[in-house]
Design brief:
alpha/beta, globular, single chain, about 850 residues
Length: about 850
Amino acid sequence: MWRSSEPKPQEQFQQWLDRLARPIEFASRDAFAHLPTVKNLSSFVSSQVMQALSDRAYPRSVEAALLKLRALFVDDQQRLTTVEQQRRLREAAAILGTLREAAQDDAWQEPERPEAPSQKVPARDLWKLPIRFAKGVGPKRSSVLQRLRIETVEDALWTVPWRYEDRSVMTPIGNLVPGMVTSICGAIVKSEAKRTRNRRFTVLEIGLEDQTGRMQAVFFNQPYLEQVFAVGKTVMMSGRVIAGRQGWMVPRMDVAQYEVVGEGNDFTLHVGRIVPIYHETKGWSSRQMRVLIKGLLEEHAADLRDYLPVSVRARQRLVPIQEALGDVHFPKAGTDLPAFQQGKSPAHRRLAFEELFLLQAALAARQRSIQVQKKSLHFRPRTPVLEKLERLLPFQLTSAQDQVIREIFRDMISPRPMNRLVQGDVGSGKTVVALHAIVMACGSGYQAALMAPTEILAEQHYRNLSSMMESLDLKVALLRGSDKAAMKKTQAAQLASGQIQVAIGTHALIQKGVSFKNLGLAVVDEQHKFGVLQRKTLIEKGYKPDILVLTATPIPRTLAMTVYGDLDVSIIHTLPPGRKPVRTFLFGEAQRRRAYQILRDELQDKRQAYVVYPLVEESEKIERQEAIQGAEHLQQNELKAFRVGLLHGRMKQADKETVMADFKAGKIHVLVATTVIEVGVDVPNATIMMIEHAERFGLAQLHQLRGRVGRAGHQSYCLLMAATMGRNKVQLGKHPTGNQESASAVKERLEALVQSNDGFVIAEEDLRIRGPGEFFGFRQWGMPEFRVANIVRDGDLLQQARSEAFSLLKQDPQLSAPGHQGLKEAMLRKWEKKLDLGSVS
């Protein structure tokens, strides 16, 4: 409240406006004659508006006008043409006039303050309002909407269209001409279904009329449309115009799209404008969604809350939330339709930025909560066991490995917990880096755990590390879910007592009954194969142990900022010396004989080979059978001179171990396997890999598989077999971009692997093609799901959101400022459980 001795808020605002207006009015005077003499106008206006917005809360209309005014002066004045500078000054003068009128409004006695909610009806929390209570929904339709991830009013409003149709201009039926591709709107005057004698085929003839003429449409073998196209209904149809039975007297349309648009007040929602098209499900159409959204916007526009701070919205030139949601669902006439189709309109940008900002704010809060913790662990940077390790290593560390080890050691001896990600391409030597951290932890009197996603990888780590650990007098154990109960009980007791210093295993490490005496370091390999809560469970086995996350899957920059945004990142850029790049070839079915010859040549040169078949979860039995049949075929035909082995995920553990031991010993020359060998299998003598149905894999997964060869100094090869490259369409099964992909698209995608051995280049291409949701082929790995944002399309926006969020949390770590309460509430609501933000709340 203002004191009687102080000017009223309107008067203060008016005085500020006068100061702000002086240089603008001077620059505009005498037909802009003084414009060249006014220096730093842009920075002056921009800083003044930002200061005013941070000093006081304003009515919504005043705030919007101030943001619009600042947007005119964010660019460097010297870079604008004279004509553009003059245009902006004229627009600024108009906005100043509007602001002066607002300052004179008697209704503005006090600026809107969040601490005085009694002055207005409190806004309803839209995320608490079940969608079933919305007009026209009810219990039955709400269960249908759940399939579209819509459970609340907020969910519905943030379910944006996936495309738009320009129905602003409908062609009169009387104006249709041959070959025209257009849209019409008319009433159904005829709907007649005819059936053949055997009643296996139907023809539905439709007649449509408007005020200018009549048109026909024919639908074959779609008898259900007889109910849809009832006489009297109004329908919109799009397609190509062709000649009808009576020539051009009554034209016919080859219909590509149609929609029953109805009559009454809702008619203009579906025709005569740019129309939003939503994802549909059985029992819910785009037409119903438009009606629902229109009603929700009319009823709840005043309840929409802008969580983004005013200063952030101003810097990023973001439209208010009400405007953004209104425009994204119902674009105005004359809007930039291509920008809407691509998800790059100002409305899309505003909504995407909020989603990304909330995530980055949560990651910043999580990172800060870790950094401010005081850990009770005390690691010693130099211990006798660490010095002994350096003497035992049979090779020299690369400079990249040495650098990453120094970064890890610096984290471990610091007073805050380590939370570090180590990225390294296949074969870059991440395991030896992790070994140094494990030995440092054990040499300081603590236990260490290494969790791998599969038993094969866990066993591989155990085999590679156990002999070295024994030489260092460290007891290491392998924990597997398939072990017998007696062994599990014994291992659990030894872990709890501290007898076992290093535990290597799968999910068995986080099962009930497994506890550590003093866990100091948790190493998580291939983090994306675990859920966030699984990692958290391992952490809770010790009192806030240091965390080291390893991944051989290069993570594109945008993905790293979302999934690993709370971690410090180290990258092993180089491979160990002597490694030769794997040569990769792409073959079609017609070139199979040539591919087999290359494979036989390597085998005759005393090398070994992999033949890999895809494994898709939904059809695991079929795919496994394909691998079994493939192994039998190779043994009896192309590779009958060599011994062929088989490995797949459903084999008994003992059988897996036998096969892998025989392959490593050279008793098996060719290992036919499913993708269980994707990570961890290390047989230096294996120099060639043939991957069947390569088109079914993502590029990142193919690159992982390729990393199983080329692990010694021999030249190695990878043969990609795209089974149906010669056909017009390639069936991909459960492919993220659709069920079918053209042969040219398959070739373009796989050629990226042929051309590059750089995992980061391949990962970026894979992300661009397949999208983030299927980047690894797993949805449970922790990738945030957005309703509007797309981290491939919005990579620049993600960077800006991250910068703004981390800057804000640096200024206000607990988001305790009055203007940040709504932001904090929204951040915790969306991310508290997923990111373990309990310490922030």
